């Protein structure tokens, strides 16, 4: 379809020369590319739309064969069950606590560490930085068993602490912020430094206000990976009251295999915070993800 | 006049002053980095060594461990479940990495033009990337449920017989690849799109002036400038695909009949379910070596690419 439609537009753009190949296209009602892109975009969107629709269906509608593909009316039974009978509110709070603590930890400790490595001279700084960077290449599977043993020794297994402590600061945050601080002009800080400001004050009043893009990248990626993680909570937590949403959701699905409306309502609750955060700050999300990728 | 001596007295103690200042600066720096050093080195550098020691031990995470030399590695080499996990993982990687990149590149080329709704398309295709593997797994377990799922309902309307999907040993791994393509293609798309927007327009204009057609521009100008990004994506996607776990745990738990047991699932099962932490650690070391080799090879490729690019522009 599109293959036959494309050449007439491709040819004039070459012939028309450089300044306005795109301007020509605007005269058409729509570009033939939409014929390809609409179905493709739908393939990606339909599962999430279906998630939302099935979460407001009644179990009777879902459990007949073939199941209804559109809810006849909005049935909030699934949400009522999930919020009333199950521990979803508790799990939500746990996920929120862990994510917020991890984000704050990475911002504060990553800033302090990154700033010291970028601007301050102390013996061993190069060696330490090298070691910390090297740990970025270590896969999680290699560290998970000993980390479990350490958390057990600390008595943190089965508490939210076990989820927070190991990711309170990541080498990624330290390194990314260090690189960013290095890119800032030194002179700004030196002026304040000579005026007798302490390092901490320079950092707080001069450096941080300039560092919002880097800080938001760290916050976005830390939140995303903490909120979405399943592996580590699965290892570190055994009792349902300490579950995170991801762990709770998969356990809940195993226990309520035929109550799909409730399972999907729980799924919506699990996905929604990340989805809203993404849609609200889409530019920052995509910039964070591509910038960390392209430089890497 | 009475102020005159003052600068001299200030100037003299300066070296001492500076030294103490430097010392106090070092102290401040250490307090700044201490928490990061303790957590990062304590919970990743130390465990790397610890894991290595564990892999030479028999350890069930509860009773004291004992040394067993290379037994774990020898057992791994003969364990049919492990070789099956390796095969499954490799098949998953070999299918997922090229497909996600090819799809991402095609979508990026389609979206890299001034048509309406480009932002909307990009958002719709990228959104699944932020959905957790758990949520994806639960959602697709439902959609692909052989009895109640929408997928079979749609097939039913089309007159196609119902499929087993994740419950069919011959389909399960392919279905997992498809689910990951749904969520992972958007990442390749945005990375490629960002790279395409960085292709210098002057290069394309020059090629067009020289009489190249669209396809030639794509083949000889656009795609070569994307090479560094493609190398990065191969590395990134391969490393992530080799470590797939959450989705498998949520959807199939390695089944049916072990057809979706991947390496990390094998490690987790051994260490935390079967109480064979030493054995799990040995498997983790095998995986880490594979990951390290992948990264190493790609780093070499990348360096060579960069050199040849520099050579071309020089």
UniProtKB/TrEMBL annotation, chain A:
The chain crosses the membrane at residues 33-53, 91-115, 127-148, 160-181, 202-224, 260-281. One of its GO terms (biological process) is transmembrane transport. The keyword Transport applies. GO terms for cellular component: plasma membrane. It comes from the Bacteria. It is found in: Cell membrane. Its main location: membrane. It is a multi-pass membrane protein. Residues 92-281 form the ABC transmembrane type-1 domain. Belongs to the binding-protein-dependent transport system permease family. This is Carbohydrate ABC transporter permease.
From TrEMBL, chain B:
SUPFAM superfamilies: MetI-like. Keywords: Cell membrane, Membrane, Transmembrane, Transmembrane helix, Transport. It comes from the Bacteria. Residues 1-22 are annotated as: Disordered. GO terms for biological process: transmembrane transport. It holds the Pfam family BPD_transp_1. CDD domains: TM_PBP2 (cd06261). Residues 86-302 form the ABC transmembrane type-1 domain. It is found in: Cell membrane. One of its GO terms (cellular component) is plasma membrane. PANTHER family: ABC TRANSPORTER PERMEASE PROTEIN (PTHR30193), INNER MEMBRANE ABC TRANSPORTER PERMEASE PROTEIN YCJO (PTHR30193:SF37). This is Sugar ABC transporter permease. It comes from Streptomyces luteolifulvus.
């Amino acid at each position: 379809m599109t293959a036959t439609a494309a050449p007439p537009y491709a040819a004039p753009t070459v012939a028309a020369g450089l300044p306005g190949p795109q301007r020509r296209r605007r005269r058409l009602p729509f570009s033939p590319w939409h014929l390809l892109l609409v179905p493709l975009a739908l393939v990606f969107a339909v599962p999430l739309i279906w998630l939302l629709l099935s979460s407001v269906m009644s179990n009777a509608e879902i459990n007949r064969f073939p199941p209804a593909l559109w809810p006849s009316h909005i049935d909030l039974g699934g949400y009522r069950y999930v919020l009333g009978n199950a521990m979803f509110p508790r799990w939500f709070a746990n996920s929120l606590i862990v994510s917020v603590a991890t984000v704050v930890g990475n911002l504060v400790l990553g800033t302090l560490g990154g700033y010291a490595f970028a601007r301050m001279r102390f013996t061993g700084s190069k060696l330490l930085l090298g070691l910390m960077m090297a740990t970025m290449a270590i896969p999680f599977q290699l560290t998970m068993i000993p980390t479990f043993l350490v958390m057990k020794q600390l008595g943190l297994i089965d508490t939210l602490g076990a989820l927070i402590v190991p990711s309170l600061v990541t080498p990624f945050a330290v390194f990314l912020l260090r690189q960013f601080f290095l890119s800032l002009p030194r002179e700004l800080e030196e002026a304040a430094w000579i005026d007798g400001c302490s390092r901490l004050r320079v950092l707080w009043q001069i450096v941080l206000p300039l560092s919002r893009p880097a800080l938001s990248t760290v916050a976005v990626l830390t939140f995303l990976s903490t909120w979405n993680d399943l592996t580590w909570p699965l290892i570190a937590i055994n009792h349902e009251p300490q579950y995170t949403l991801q762990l709770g959701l998969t356990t809940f699905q195993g226990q309520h295999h035929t109550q799909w409306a409730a399972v999907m309502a729980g799924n919506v609750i699990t996905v929604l915070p990340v989805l809203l955060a993404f849609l609200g700050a889409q530019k920052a999300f995509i910039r964070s993800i591509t910038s960390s990728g392209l430089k890497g | 006049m009475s102020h005159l001596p003052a600068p001299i007295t200030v100037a003299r103690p300066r070296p001492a002053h500076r030294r103490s200042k430097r010392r106090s600066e070092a102290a401040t720096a250490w307090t700044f980095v201490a928490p990061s050093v303790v957590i990062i080195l304590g919970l990743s550098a130390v465990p790397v060594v610890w894991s290595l020691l564990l892999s030479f031990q028999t350890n069930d995470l509860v009773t004291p461990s004992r040394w067993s030399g290379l037994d774990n590695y020898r057992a791994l080499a003969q364990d049919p479940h492990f070789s099956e996990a390796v095969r499954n993982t490799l098949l998953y990687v070999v299918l997922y990495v090229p497909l996600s990149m090819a799809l991402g590149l095609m979508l990026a080329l389609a979206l890299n033009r001034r048509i309406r709704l480009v932002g909307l398309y990009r958002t719709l295709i990228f959104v699944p990337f932020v959905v957790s593997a758990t949520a994806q797994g639960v959602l697709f377990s439902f959609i692909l449920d052989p009895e109640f799922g929408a997928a079979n309902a749609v097939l039913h309307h089309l007159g196609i017989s119902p499929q087993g999907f994740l419950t069919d040993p011959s389909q399960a791994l392919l279905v997992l690849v498809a689910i990951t393509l749904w969520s992972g293609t958007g990442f390749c798309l945005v990375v490629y799109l960002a790279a395409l927007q960085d292709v210098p327009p002057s290069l394309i204009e020059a090629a067009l002036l020289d009489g190249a057609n669209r396809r030639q521009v794509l083949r000889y100008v656009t795609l070569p400038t994307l090479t560094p990004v493609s190398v990065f994506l191969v590395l990134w996607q391969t490393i992530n695909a080799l470590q797939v776990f959450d989705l498998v745990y949520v959807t199939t738990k390695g089944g049916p009949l072990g057809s979706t047991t991947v390496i990390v699932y094998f490690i987790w099962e051994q260490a935390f379910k079967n109480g064979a932490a030493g054995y799990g650690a040995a498997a983790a070391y095998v995986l880490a070596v594979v990951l390290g080799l992948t990264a190493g090879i790609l780093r070499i490729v990348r360096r060579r690419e960069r050199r040849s690019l520099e050579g071309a522009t020089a």
